[in-house]
Task: inverse folding
DNA sequence: CTAATGATGAACT
DNA sequence: GTTCATCATTAGG
């Protein structure tokens, strides 16, 4: 990760906002797939909804690595979700990537996603990992190193909406979900 | 050791 | 709106 990127990734809330509008890219043997990040959530160690809340465990250990580390976990026994770890190292902070607007490799995404339509390819945290070919083998790898990349140059300035997070039972009222206004590609449209 | 649960998605009615 | 697939982690005995 460049010095520039390190600055953007100082804490999970700022990173969650900065990541909106950036392009997330995977380079695999099957081809390149990519999409604009349109929805994120921030998690941190003093947040009872976070996997890092009870300290470092076997599952969450990647969350305590340096900024730019990838944290992937198995959700509900069958889905993978992608997080980008933010700093400082050891704090257990990360940003969950919840939705993308597909930009590159749409046909490959469709083949990985059982040939669903454009709106169903990346509109959820486990949908986008499947579409981009991300799984548990990517856990604890580094961004912009080999397979998973983020292009920090935005092609537009997104208007950011802040809301409560999706699918959690602890710390429900914290407004730590961020998404791009009027994007049809977000996972859930309602919620405050 | 056992049992409940979950940062979800697909397929239903 | 509801149900359920499916398993690592976690709490508890």
Result:
């Amino acid at each position: 990760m460049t010095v520039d990127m390190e600055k953007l990734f100082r804490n999970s809330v700022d990173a969650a906002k900065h990541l909106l509008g950036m392009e997330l890219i995977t380079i695999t043997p099957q081809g390149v797939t990519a999409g604009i990040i349109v929805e994120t959530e921030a998690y941190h160690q003093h947040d009872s909804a976070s996997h890092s809340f009870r300290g470092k465990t076997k599952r969450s250990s990647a969350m305590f690595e340096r900024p730019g580390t990838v944290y992937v976990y198995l959700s509900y026994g069958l889905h993978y979700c992608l997080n980008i770890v933010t700093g400082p190292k050891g704090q257990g902070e990360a940003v969950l990537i919840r939705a993308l607007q597909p930009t590159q490799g749409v046909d490959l995404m469709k083949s990985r996603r059982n040939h669903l339509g454009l709106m169903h390819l990346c509109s959820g945290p486990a949908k986008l990992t499947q579409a981009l070919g991300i799984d548990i083998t990517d856990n604890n790898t580094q961004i912009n190193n080999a397979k998973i990349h983020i292009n920090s140059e935005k092609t537009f300035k997104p208007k950011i909406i802040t809301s409560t997070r999706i699918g959690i039972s602890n710390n429900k009222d914290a407004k730590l979900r961020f998404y791009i206004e009027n994007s049809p590609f977000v996972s859930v449209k309602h919620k405050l």
